[in-house]
Design a protein that fits this description.
Blueprint (H helix, E strand, L loop, with lengths): L40 H22 L1 H15 L3 E5 L4 H14 L11 H15 L1 E8 L10 E7 L9 E2 L4 E4 L2 E4 L2 E8 L16 E5 L3 E5 L17 H22 L3 E5 L42 E5 L9 H16 L3 H5 L7 H42 L12 H4 L1 E5 L7 H13 L5 H7 L4 H21 L22
Length: 497
C-alpha cells in the first residue's frame, strides 16, 4: 500500500490545501500531455547536445534570420577586438608586458590568418552555434618567430567526445570527455583530428590525447549549476526557425508558381471536333489527330482576338490575405525572443519606434552583451590567454618577477576593454561623459576604458600632435595660441612673432 506524504501543522493535524497551489503544476485537464522530465544538466546534454549542435550549425549555414542573429551577436560582443592593458603596479613590468602583447597578439594563430580580435570572433561564433569551444595552448620555439613562444589552437566541441565516461583510479573519473579529480577539472580528452572528418567507431581512451587543464580554456556558458558541457544559444529557436523557414519558402514557391499563369481561355460549349481530344489533358484521343496548342506566347501590348464563343478570363493579383504582415511580424518577434535579440535588430524593421524607444531597446540589449563580454569572453578567454602570456614572459626572462611563484596575480592584473559602442547621440553622449568627469562621478581613465581606449596612449598621441603642430606654426611664422586649434583663440588677433 502506497503511503502519501502529508504536511502537518503545529497542532499535529494535516494542513488542507484547496486546489493546486501553482497553476504551472496543474495536471489535468489543462496540463494533460505536458511532458516535463526531471533530468540533470549533464544527462540532458548527453542526449540532446550533439543533435542541437548539428542543427544549430545547419541553421547557421542556411537560415537567413538565424544566421543574421548569430552574426549580429558576434559583432556586438567582439566588435573590432578587445584591448588588453596590464595593471601591474610595477611600472617597468607594466610597460614591458604591454609592449610585448602589442606584438604577440598578431602571432597567436598557427596559420597566421587571424589576429587576436579575429580569434575572439571565431570563438564567440563557435560558442553561440555549438554551445562551446576549446582553446589549446601550443608551445613553440624561438626560431618560429614570436618572442613569446606559444600559439592558440581552436578546437570545436566534437574534439572532446561527450560520450566518453569512465571511472578511473581513486577519486578520478571522466565525465563527458572531461577528467575530474573530485570536483576539479584536471584534464581534457581530445581526438587527434576532427572526428567528423573520419569514420570513427566506438571511442576508447587509446584513440584520444590527454591534455592537462592548465593548457586548455573551455569557453562555454554554464546555464545550470554543475553543467560540464555547453548548450548552443540557439536551442530555443531551432524548431521555430525551421517551421517558419519552411512556411516562408512554401509561400514563396506558391506565389512563384501562380505568377506563371496569366489567364484561362474557355468556351461556352464544345464543338463536335473538340471531342477528338481529352477535355481534361488536351491529348488526342486518336493517333491520326494532331494535338492543339496548349499555350501561346504573346508580346507585351498585344490585343488578342478570340474565336466566336471563346472568352479570356485574366487572373487577379496574388493576395496573401488580411493580417499576413501582422502574422509574420508576430512570428519574427517570437524568434527574436528565443534568440535573445531585439526584433528591430534582427529584422531591420525600426518603423513606428521613437528615439527614446530605440535607446531603451538598445540599452537593454547591450547590458546582456556586456555581461557576456565580461563574464565569458573576458574572464574565460582574455584572462586565460593573458595568464599564458605572462607565464611565458616570466619563463623567457622578458620581465623581472622575483616573487612570481608566491604572488602571480600581481602580474596577472589586467584591464579588459571591449570595443566601444558607437554613440546613439554623439553630442549628448560626449557631453554627458564630460559632465560626469567634471562632477567627479567619473574620471578620464574610466571613460577612456569605457570607450575601449588607452588613456596613456591617447594623451601621448595628443602631446605629439600638439608638438608637431607648434613646430609647423614656428616654421611658418605663426603663433599657435592665436589659432583655433587645441584650445587656442578664434584667430581674430593679429599674428604675433
Amino acid at each position: 500500500m502506497t503511503r502519501q506524504s502529508v504536511i502537518l501543522g503545529l497542532d499535529g493535524k494535516s494542513l488542507a490545501v484547496g486546489g493546486q497551489p501553482y497553476e504551472g503544476a496543474t495536471r489535468t485537464p489543462r496540463g494533460h500531455g505536458w511532458q516535463a522530465p526531471a533530468i540533470g544538466p549533464n544527462r540532458a546534454l548527453a542526449a540532446a547536445g550533439p543533435v542541437l549542435r548539428n542543427r544549430s550549425r545547419q541553421a547557421h549555414r542556411n537560415s537567413p534570420y538565424l544566421r543574421s542573429a548569430i552574426e549580429k551577436g558576434v559583432t556586438a560582443e567582439v566588435g573590432k577586438g578587445v584591448v588588453l592593458i596590464s595593471t601591474c603596479k610595477d611600472p617597468d613590468v607594466k610597460e614591458a608586458l604591454d609592449a610585448l602583447w602589442k606584438q604577440h597578439q598578431h602571432c597567436l594563430d598557427p596559420w597566421g590568418d587571424m589576429t587576436f580580435g579575429a580569434i575572439l570572433q571565431q570563438l564567440s561564433r563557435a560558442r553561440k552555434t555549438g554551445g562551446e569551444v576549446f582553446i589549446r595552448r601550443i608551445p613553440t620555439t624561438i626560431k618560429a618567430g614570436p618572442r613569446v613562444p606559444f600559439e592558440l589552437e581552436i578546437l570545436e566541441a566534437e574534439f572532446c567526445p561527450m560520450e566518453l565516461n569512465k571511472r578511473l583510479a581513486g577519486n578520478r573519473r571522466i565525465v563527458q570527455g572531461v577528467e575530474l579529480l573530485g570536483r576539479k577539472k584536471v584534464a581534457f580528452w581530445f581526438h587527434k583530428q576532427h572526428p567528423t572528418d573520419l569514420d570513427w567507431g566506438t571511442v576508447t581512451i587509446n584513440d584520444l590525447v590527454r591534455v592537462p587543464a592548465r593548457d586548455v580554456i573551455h569557453h562555454y556558458q554554464a546555464t545550470r549549476p554543475g553543467q560540464i558541457r555547453g548548450e548552443p544559444g540557439t536551442s530555443a529557436a531551432l524548431l521555430k526557425d525551421r517551421e517558419f523557414t519552411e512556411y516562408s519558402d512554401a509561400e514563396l514557391v506558391r506565389k512563384k508558381t501562380r505568377s506563371a499563369f496569366t489567364g484561362f481561355l474557355y468556351r461556352e460549349n464544345f464543338a463536335e471536333d473538340d471531342m477528338e481530344f481529352d477535355p481534361q489533358t488536351g491529348k488526342p484521343l486518336y493517333e491520326d489527330v494532331a494535338a492543339p496548342e496548349q499555350s501561346q506566347e504573346v508580346a507585351v501590348g498585344t490585343i488578342l482576338r478570340g474565336m466566336a464563343g471563346e472568352k479570356l478570363q485574366l487572373f487577379e493579383g496574388d493576395s496573401t490575405g488580411a493580417g499576413y504582415a501582422d502574422f509574420i511580424k508576430s512570428q519574427m518577434q517570437q524568434l527574436a525572443a528565443a534568440l535573445d535579440i531585439p526584433y528591430p535588430v534582427l529584422t531591420g524593421d525600426w518603423s513606428g519606434l521613437s528615439d527614446r524607444t530605440i535607446r531603451a531597446i538598445l540599452n537593454e540589449y547591450r547590458r546582456g552583451v556586456a555581461s557576456d563580454q565580461l563574464n565569458l569572453l573576458g574572464f574565460q578567454v582574455c584572462l586565460g590567454v593573458w595568464r599564458w602570456f605572462v607565464d611565458s614572459c616570466v619563463l623567457m626572462g622578458h620581465i623581472s618577477a622575483p616573487d612570481f611563484a608566491d604572488n602571480p596575480w600581481a602580474y596577472y592584473a589586467l584591464d579588459i576593454r571591449p570595443d566601444a559602442w558607437r554613440h546613439l547621440h554623439p553630442e549628448q553622449d560626449i557631453r554627458s561623459r564630460d559632465m560626469a568627469i567634471k562632477s567627479l562621478y567619473s574620471n578620464p581613465e574610466r571613460e577612456a576604458a569605457d570607450c575601449g581606449a588607452d588613456l596613456d596612449e591617447n594623451m601621448a598621441a595628443t602631446a605629439r600632435t600638439i608638438k608637431k603642430w607648434r613646430n609647423i606654426c614656428a616654421e611658418n611664422d605663426l603663433n599657435p595660441d592665436n589659432l583655433p586649434m587645441f584650445g587656442g583663440s578664434t584667430g581674430d588677433k593679429e599674428t604675433e612673432e
